[in-house]
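Handoff note, outgoing to incoming analyst
You'll be picking up this chain. Sequence as last confirmed:
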Amino acid sequence: MRTELDFWHRIESGLRASLPVTLALLLTLVCTLPLGPPGLGQIMPSLPMICVFYWTVYRGDLMPLVATFVIGIVHDSLSGAPLGGSAIVLLTLQGLAARHRRFFHGKTIAVVWAGFAALTAIVQSFGWLIASLYHLQALPLMPAIFQAFLTMALYPLIALPFGVILRELLQPLPVAPR
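Most recent structure output, in case you need it:
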């Protein structure tokens, strides 16, 4: 009886631990679906960026680098973007978020949102540069700027349900003091 309970406990723990990556993949699918008018994909908010940032800050152990790389490759494959570009951008965002994790710990959502906005501006600019280099020409800047602002604006709407998931299904990781 005890072994059976241990088995189901491990299954439940594994399913809970896979939630951040699963949610990131689902939101990647949502933001790459051909919905709406033509050209909307160029300005569609980067929902995977929100996922990678949020889960790196609050449960970095559940958003491994390999998963972030796969999310980026899936995004590029579905959106038609240069293969690997999104992976580089997401991994850069993850590295920056992990580096500043202690700063974000215990801060209000407004402070974390402002930090997300700053990092989004940096990595979206980097992503625009990568795409421009890939196409050997400077791509229009306005779609990238609009996409960045939409991504920044949507952060609290995505982060709040993630907070409920974190609180109810997962436990926040403690942050070691400086």
